[in-house]
Every structure is written in C-alpha cells, then in structure tokens.
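Suppose you are handed only these lines of text.
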Amino acid sequence: MAKAKDGTATYPGPVGGWGSLRGMAETWAREKDGPEVLSTLMRLNKPNGVMCASCAWTKPAHPQLFEFCENGAKAHLWEQTRLRATPDFFARHTLTELKSWSDHDLEQAGRLTHPMRYHRASDRYVECSWDEAFEAIGRRLKAIHDPRSVVFYASGRASLETSYAWALMARLYGNNNLPDSSNMCHETTSVALKATIGVGVGTCLLEDFEHCDAIFFFGQNTGVNSPRFLHTLAHARKRGCQIVTFNPIVEKGGVAFRNPQSIQMVTGGSMPISTQYHQVKAGGDIAAILGMCKHVFAEDERRGGGIIDRAFIAGHTHGFDAFAEKVTTVTWEEIEAESGLPRAAIVEAAEVYIAAERSIGIWGMGLTQHVRGFENIASVVNLMLLKGNMGRLGAGVSPVRGHSNVQGQRTVGIAENPALVPLDRLAELYGFDPPREHGLGTVETCRGVIAGTVKAFLGLGGNFLRAVPDQSLVEPAWEGMDLTVQVATRLNRGQLFCGEDAFLLPCIARSESDVQASGPQVVTMEDSLSCVHGSFGKATPASEHIRSEMAIVAGIAKASLAPNPRVPWDEWVGDYGKVRDAIEATYPAMFKDFNQRLFIPGGFFKGNAARDRVWNTKSGKAEFTTPETLNATGFRDAPGRYRLLTLRSNDQFNTTIYGYSDRLRGIEGTREVLLINPEDMARAGLSAGQKVALVSDAEDQVERVVEGLAVTPFRLPDDCVAGYYPELNPLIPLAHHDHASMTPAAKSVPVKIRA
Ligand SMILES: Nc1nc2c(c(=O)[nH]1)N[C@H]1C(S)=C(S)[C@@H](COP(=O)(O)OP(=O)(O)OC[C@H]3O[C@@H](n4cnc5c(=O)[nH]c(N)nc54)[C@H](O)[C@@H]3O)O[C@H]1N2
Ligand SMILES: Nc1nc2c(c(=O)[nH]1)N[C@H]1C(S)=C(S)[C@@H](COP(=O)(O)OP(=O)(O)OC[C@H]3O[C@@H](n4cnc5c(=O)[nH]c(N)nc54)[C@H](O)[C@@H]3O)O[C@H]1N2
Ligand SMILES: [Mo]
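From them, the structure of the protein bound to MGD can be written out as follows.
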C-alpha cells in the first residue's frame, strides 16, 4: 500500500498506463479466459462491433484502435470467463452455505449454465427444464389476485428490444411496477432535469466537448467508471479547455491520464486533466455552486453587466428573481461552512466560469445520491442558465450514466411513472387497457417486500437485494414472497434468497452470439449522450442450455398472460428486427427508420428538446431553482456524527467484485476499510489498522451496524468518512433518499464510529 507524506493511502501513477494493463492481466488470469475474448475486445465499441457492457459512455464515430479501457476489458474478461457454475456446483453447496460466501467468491463460481429451481427440502438449486420453469412461473403469476403485488425489476444492461418486451409484459400483466437500477442511480438526474429543462437526460453531444471552454465536474469518478471519457477530456485540455473538479476525494482520473495507446506509455508522460481541484465536503455542492453564482453576480455588477446573459434569462427562463434574491442574501460564512471550501477557492472556480464563453456541467453519483440530490442538480442547471449555457454548441449539461443501457431502458418504457410512457399508443397498438396507476420504484419495492404486500419479484439482471439500502431488513423479508425469478449470467447474493418458488434463469451475454429463427441477431442500446447503437455479439455462448434474454422474457410472458394475437412473442424472438419495428411504432419520432440506422458510426441521436431551446417544463421556460438549504445531506451535524460516502473501487462493477485492488486509491488486499483523515482519527483517538464498527446515526431507533472495518488514513474533508459499496449498504436507512426522486442517499449517510 503506497503512502503519501502524511501517511494517507495514495497511488503514485496516473490513470491508464502500465498499471491498467496489469489490472487487466490479473483479471485474465483469474477468469481463465480463452483466446476468443481477444476478438471481442478488438470489436468493442466499434461500428458493427459489440457495445461495451460496462459503462454507458458514448461510442465515437471514429474509434481508436483499442476503443476500450481497463474496466471495459475486465467486464468482458468476466463475461467470457471459462469458469462455470454447473448443476454440479449447486449440488455441492446449500444456499445457507453460499450465503456465507463473499460477493467475489460467489461470482467466481463462473457463468450459469442451466435453468435452476430452488428445492427447499435440500436447500439447493436443482436443474429444471425451461418448460418447467416457464410453466411454474406462469401458474404462480396467474394465481396472484392483485397484479399490483408483482414487481418487474431491470438492471440497466438488457437491450432496448428486451427492455421494451419486459415493460410491455408488466403492463399486460397489469401494473407499472418497473423499477430500474436507475432508481438507485441517476433517477435524481431524470427528475431534476425534467423539472428544470424539460428533458430527463443530458443535452450534450461529443461535438460540444470539442468546443467548450470550461467543464465543471461534480462527483463522477471518470478514471474508474467511464475511463474512455478521459480521452475526450484529455483532448479538451489539450485545446486549452479548463476543467474544474469538485470532489471530496482526489480521484486519480481527475488528476492525470496516461493514454495507453500513445507515446506517453513509452515516455512515462501523462496528460493533466483538472485545472482546479476542490475537495468539497460531501453534501456541500449546493453551497459551492451558490458561492460561484454569488461571485458571478458581484462581478457582473462591478463590471456594469455583460457577464450574466440577461436576454437569455428574460426570454428563456423562469424563477430568476427569487434565485437572485437568495444569491444576494446568502452569506459567505454560510457558503464556506456548508461547502467546506474557502471563499478564495470558490471565487477561483467562478472566475473560470466568467471567462468561459461556453461551459458544460458534468456529474455522477456524487450529486445524485443525497437527500437534496434534486437541488444539487438544479444548482448545476442554475449555474449554466446564468450565462445561457444551454442549447448552444459547446454548452449544456452532461450527466454520466452508469449501466450501458440504463438510459435506454427508461426510453423504451421501463418506468414506474406512467406519465413517462405513451400508454394510449400502447393501448392502440396492442388492444388493451394499460394500467394508469403509479408503480413501485426501488425504495417502494423494498417497503412492499418488508410489509408483505409484494408477493413476487422478477429481475431482468442485476443484484437488487445487494444494491438496495437497509439490507438487514430486506433480506429476511425477501423469503416471504410467493415467487422470485432472476435472469442472470453469474451467481450473486441476491439469488440466494428465495421466495416459496424460485428460479435462476441463465442468459446469453451481450458479447455472445444470439442465433434465432431468422439467423444471428443484433441488439441495440442508448448511451449517455442519447445515441443509439447496434451491437452484434459473436463469441460462443457460455453453455448450450442458456437462452437469450428476449427468449426468456417471451417464455415467461406466454406462460403468464392471456393470449393476445397482437403481441407476437414467437415472431419477436425469431427476429429482433420485428421488436424494433414495434419500438418504432410506439416512439415514431425517436426511432424513425430504426432498422435502417443500426450501424451508423457514432450511433443515431434520438433528439433532445432542451438542446433546441424548447422547454417542456410546467412554465414552458427553463427553471431557476431556489434552494431551501445549502446542506445536501438532509441531516444536521452532531458531535461524533460523520457523513459516510459509499464508494466503488477500481476492481468492481457495482456488486460484482473482480478483485481486491483499489489501485488508484492505494488500497490493496481488502475492502473492509474505513477511510478517514488523520486529523479526524486523532480527534476520535483511532489508530491506523484498528478494527472498528460503523453504526448508523439516523435517529430512527433502528440498529444498523457493520463491523470489522480497518481504520485507514485517507485524504478526505473533515467529518467525512468513506468505505465500499455494497458492503456498507446495511447502514443506509430506506427512508434516507432524495426527496424528489427517492434515489437512496448513499453518498452522505449519517454514521458513528464504534471502537
Ligand atoms: N468500472 C466500473 N465502471 C462503472 C461502475 C462500476 O462499478 N465499475 N458502475 C457503473 C454505474 S451503474 C454507475 S451509476 C457509474 C458510477 O460512477 P460515478 O458516478 O463515478 O459513481 P461513484 O463511483 O459512486 O463515485 C462518485 C464520485 O463522487 C464523489 N462524491 C461523493 N460524494 C460527493 C459529494 O457530495 N459531492 C461531490 N462533488 N462528489 C462526491 C466520490 O468521491 C466519487 O469520486 O459507473 C458505471 N461504471
Ligand atoms: N451504497 C451504495 N449502494 C448503491 C450504489 C452506491 O453507489 N452506493 N450505487 C447504486 C447504483 S448506481 C446502481 S446502478 C445499483 C446496481 O444495481 P444492479 O444493477 O442491480 O446490480 P449489478 O451489481 O450491476 O448486477 C450484477 C449482476 O448482474 C448480472 N448480469 C451481468 N450481466 C448480465 C447480463 O448481460 N444479463 C443479465 N440478465 N444479467 C447480467 C450478473 O448476474 C451480476 O451478478 O446499485 C446501487 N446501490
Ligand atoms: Mo448506476
């Protein structure tokens, strides 16, 4: 473990470089990959190739020779592993035993090979036939009296085609219970952007990054979670674009990048990324941004105008006066206390904004996962609106999404909010009366499971039970359901908790060849910049007994729903082009000529009204938001109370733990750590390596504890501590979520340390 002068953990190198090649090689060895995976890697993110199953960053029209990163490679090495979890494996282990395994060891069992059904008497999964599985699932679903007690979760990876079918199945069954991993992720973005600029997604395209003068970067760990974006950022920096970063942690990707495909590998040089780096307190962004606005106002007045775009504000926005009032009355003392940043630092950032003709605002989980996440994002929008940085070249907002098709799943109907779905169109196309009632999101699903009102859960990918808050309450309640079904590629903890009847259904992964009646199939996905791409898997599927996600959805639907001649499940499975025709019929503007545009280099853009300065908001204008509070955490500071940030390491994809090396933060060999700064350690009387427990400090009488965390000195702001997701999820109360979108507030959890 490398250490800085003050004893805190750190990594001396840049992101990329030889360290990243070592990271890939270790995964290669662990997964025992064969040579076929090389051809997948060479085809990644290229026109006619495979769209990476790791992050949602856009796929450029002119890709590099290797258009993949360390973590994209790991994701595919993991997907195409030679390890197998066969019926034999399940015969050797009871679920009770497997519940004591780590997330890493569970997934290391390898790819699932056969459909499995839970056998209660032996506490094991046993092989079953696909027909048996579909028939039993159908029988259970038909026996449930209230269709609103069944949940259809999706994790953000399945294609547009499968996602469209999944959402339609839920509505034909009779509910809008379609939570998505987005409910734990960028739902805050979708809700806040819809309210403020009228579209639930970012407004930027790649060309904007070629023309912007400044980028304001909040709480997104590019070097780990969307490393290909570093190429875009490095190019912008080379042109002289300023990159101002706000993050409680100095993340390596925000500091320097060594392009693995350039001469920098040989020379040891690297590209600096951020021009300013501000270690804002967790939950301090509303204050920091308001401070920037305050300086913009003051300078505008001092220079007699010319900075604030008054014409844009008059013509295109609403709510400016109330916001201006707040900016003028808020004090610098308040701003400094809540942001944890000195006035001079905020002024320095604001000066960049003032000087830049074109600015872009970027964010990730550092803004969305707070009780006042809505206001975090609305604050970025406020800042951009001040200078008309919306709807013109080189300007706008660009949230960085997570799962590779999470944005697309919402686009094609996986949404618990029926207002986001063209229900009348579905009624017309399929001759049924779609449910109009609001469905269950992730938090409501957890509540329903605990209350016993949710009777069945079907998961299209993901590891719901491990990703949600308050695990210690949800896990035991989970087994009270009538039916649980998981469509998956690899074994995870969520699959070990079974309803009365339970199925584990293995599917073909995106990089694998999917041959149906009409021949090899293409699937599609939408990236973070709203561009849609075809993806063509060619690798040999992990087992001859697994099926495509589309075929599994159709199998469940046919067994569970009354026959409807207008929904041709078999034809759809035989030819995914016909599902795309159905998507086009449902969303004619976005998906015009869908089947003809599958392989346009760079994808096809589905359009964005705010980009054209058309504001589909309540007022018909872009909205300024006046924050009621400067503290995004939703709780007061108290003696001994810390703000816990739950982090991803460089060696995981969400709940999939590839290994135990968080190289870029200098933490090796374990994930059971509590990161805390040396000053807070001294104040609390803790020493490095000491084992402590974290206890939730939510003032709600529920005891939540995670034990055995090694105290690890790390550069964080005062009163902020950090550790890893999902290990620390039992500490997050279900009620601790963004007030507008219900996204769990995983980046500022109130905790105490128990020595
Ligand atoms: N390799 C890899 N790639 C991934 C994933 C993965 O697990 N592994 N997950 C995918 C998914 S689903 C998602 S959603 C994305 C997640 O990607 P990110 O959005 O980057 O999410 P996190 O890794 O949780 O990191 C959030 C960052 O916010 C910072 N932060 C925390 N609190 C605050 C705050 O109050 N203010 C500010 N300004 N910053 C804060 C943290 O220090 C951290 O750097 O990545 C996707 N890509
Ligand atoms: N404390 C805390 N909690 C968090 C977060 C946080 O930052 N902190 N982040 C939240 C975020 S942003 C997200 S997106 C959620 C993630 O929640 P999920 O999306 O539910 O979880 P994943 O870990 O991505 O799911 C991993 C599993 O997906 C399955 N899988 C992989 N590929 C495929 C495929 O191609 N098809 C199918 N059918 N299955 C596949 C594998 O079986 C694997 O075990 O977690 C959330 N929870
Ligand atoms: Mo996510």
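What can we learn from it? The pocket of MGD (ligand 1) is lined by residues 54-55, 71, 185, 218-221, 224-226, 246-249, 251, 280, 282-283, 285, 364-366, 402-403, 645, 647-648, 652-654, 747 (CB under 6 Å). The radius of gyration is 25 Å.
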